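Per-record layout

source: Petromyzon marinus
name: Caveolin
length: 112
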Amino acid sequence: QVLFEDVFAYPEGSHSIPGVWRCAFRTYNGTKWFCYLLLSVLCAVPLSCCWGCDFACAQFYHVWVTPCLRMCRMNMLCLQMFWSTIVRCVCEPLCETCALCFSHIRIKGARD
């Protein structure tokens, strides 16, 4: 909380005329209360809707999406093992053979 004394820092012995100081004190507190009330009325409902939707989405994600992603990851692991075996057994030897064949090609240019 922000108090009147924290904002205006009136030392105890140097207050204005009692009526002015009291009026400034009441004006400050009334304005602070009114602004808070106005902002609460204007922002409370929209912000609570946004936060409610945000927490609902987070809860939905944790309850439904996370297990689905785990299952997908488990299935992809099996597919990854299968695919890496195919690549190692078929593609690597084929690429190595092609590399060996093409590495022995020598191009000689004809000189005039």
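summary: The first helix runs from residue 4 to 8. The helical segments are 4-8, 18-103.
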